[in-house]
Structure to design on (317 residues):
């Protein structure tokens, strides 16, 4: 057997293509909708072209289906969704799902500053999905923002609906707590209804809904940040002398946001950020950010005897 060979499971109806061959007789195959499953070599059999020609399938089974697009029954929840569904414990497949009654013209791009690359475009039929790309979970922090544009198609004279234009950058604190079942596809993963513009993700509600469901944790195990994170620039960068004031603030805020998100994603109930007194700009920026963050119980100046008023304690919901 070689990579690219088409195979069938001996104890099931699934067919797929070999994508990886490992030692010990373990093989990975990609089945419909781009999902990959691990199997043992003795659990599959090759499908030869001669077999397909000799045993012709019924007409309804011969109907060609696009490998990147699926279409199923009407979902309980309507909307336009991004769904990150696991191929294995390291790789996710990103799907765009149209659980609406109208077909949609769509374009999805990854954004790199002032540049971008289109990863998917075309028409997405009602009640269908299309696979956009695969993402490595360990590289979550490096995932670029996604820029989406969807335009509903009117097949008759009817009310015009505005297009959906959105740029999305996920944070660990919300992404890995958004486990749900993807509409249309019916598979568990990280699911976001992008049609709900400007609606904040209710993490607690999602957790309540998922309680009692037996499922394997798909989120990467982030290393918990320390309980006290020192944001003094000399602690963060060896080249801080070459940074401008604005670059220093950005560096410090990026470190603050990353550690706060990791603290939330890893289940910490509190974390302290040491920002110093200085001119107070960093403290103001941190407090401004925290005042708009939904997953925070409260924050306050802390431990005067150790940090003066140069530290902020953050209590996490």
């Amino acid at each position: 057997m070689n990579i690219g060979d088409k195979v069938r499971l001996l104890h099931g109806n699934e067919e797929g293509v070999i994508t990886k061959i490992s030692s010990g007789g373990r093989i990975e195959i990609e089945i419909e909708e781009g999902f990959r499953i691990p199997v043992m070599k003795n659990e599959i059999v090759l499908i030869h072209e001669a077999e397909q020609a000799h045993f012709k399938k019924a007409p309804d089974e011969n109907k060609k289906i696009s490998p990147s697009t699926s279409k199923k029954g009407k979902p309980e929840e309507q909307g336009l969704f991004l769904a990150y569904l696991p191929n294995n414990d390291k790789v996710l497949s990103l799907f765009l799902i149209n659980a609406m009654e109208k077909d949609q013209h769509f374009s999805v791009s990854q954004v790199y500053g002032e540049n971008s690359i289109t990863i998917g475009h075309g028409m997405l039929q009602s009640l269908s999905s299309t696979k956009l790309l695969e993402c490595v979970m360990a590289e979550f922090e490096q995932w670029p923002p996604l820029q989406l544009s969807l335009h509903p198609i009117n097949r008759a004279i009817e009310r015009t609906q505005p297009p959906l234009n959105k740029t999305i950058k996920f944070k660990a604190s919300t992404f890995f707590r958004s486990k749900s079942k993807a509409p249309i596809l019916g598979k568990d993963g990280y699911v976001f209804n992008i049609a709900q513009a400007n609606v904040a993700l209710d993490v607690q509600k999602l957790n309540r809904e998922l309680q009692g469901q037996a499922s394997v944790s798909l989120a990467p195990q982030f290393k918990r940040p320390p309980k006290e994170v020192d944001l003094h620039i000399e602690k963060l960068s060896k080249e801080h002398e070459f940074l401008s004031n604005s670059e220093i603030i950005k560096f410090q805020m990026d470190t603050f946001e990353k550690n706060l998100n990791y603290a939330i994603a890893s289940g910490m109930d509190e974390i302290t950020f040491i920002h110093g007194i200085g001119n107070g700009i960093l403290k103001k920026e941190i407090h401004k950010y925290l005042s708009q963050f939904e997953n925070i119980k409260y924050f306050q100046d802390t431990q005067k005897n150790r940090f003066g008023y140069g530290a902020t304690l953050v209590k996490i919901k």
Notes: Helices lie at 49-54, 172-175, 203-210, 233-236, 245-265, 281-291, 304-307. The CA atoms of residues 27 and 159 lie 51 Å apart. The chain has seven helices and 19 strands. The radius of gyration is 24 Å.
